[in-house]
Amino acid sequence: MALQEEFKEYAEKAKFLPPTTKDSDKLALYGLYKQATVGAINTNRPGFFSPTERAKWDAWKAVEGKIKEEAMTDYIAKVKQLQEVAST
């Protein structure tokens, strides 16, 4: 399976992670997804009064510099890890 197709498949699977998934894991997925689909972060950091948007921005910034394929591979691995944790 091509990496792009597998990435899309796991992006769909990520929508069905259990509600008990930690926010830190969701943010890690968000950052990897944005890096894989958009590339380098292209916005200014949100202000203090937008904590959710700021956390998302920080998660994306944390993976800045990863190439698209690396971000996709890391995203797939993270979803697989979270699925395993959910099934135990």
Describe the sheet with the most strands.
Answer: none
What CATH architecture do you see? Up-down Bundle
CATH C-level label: Mainly Alpha
The 3D shape can be described as: flat
Number of helices: 4
Euclidean distance between termini CA atoms:
27 Å
Could you list the spans in which at least 5 consecutive residues all have pLDDT below 50?
Answer: none
**Into which percentage range does the β-strand content fall?**
under 5%
- Find the structural class using helix and strand composition: mainly alpha
Average predicted confidence as pLDDT = 95
Question: What share of residues is helical?
Answer: 55-70%
Order of helices and strands: HHHH
The CATH topology is what? Acyl-CoA Binding Protein
* Overall structural domain count: 1
Radius of gyration: 13 Å
DSSP summary, beta strand count: 0
What does this structure look like?
The chain is an all-alpha fold and 88 residues long. The protein contains 4 helices and no strands. Helix 2 (23-37) runs antiparallel to helix 4 (68-86). The radius of gyration is 13 Å and the shape is flat. It starts with a helix and ends with a helix.
SSE arrangement:
Layout: H1 3-14, H2 23-37, H3 51-62, H4 68-86
Helix pairs in contact: 1-4, 2-3, 2-4
Briefly say what this structure is.
With 88 residues, the protein is mainly α. It has one domain (3-86): Acyl-CoA Binding Protein (Up-down Bundle).
Give the tags:
66% helix, 88 residues, mainly alpha, Acyl-CoA Binding Protein
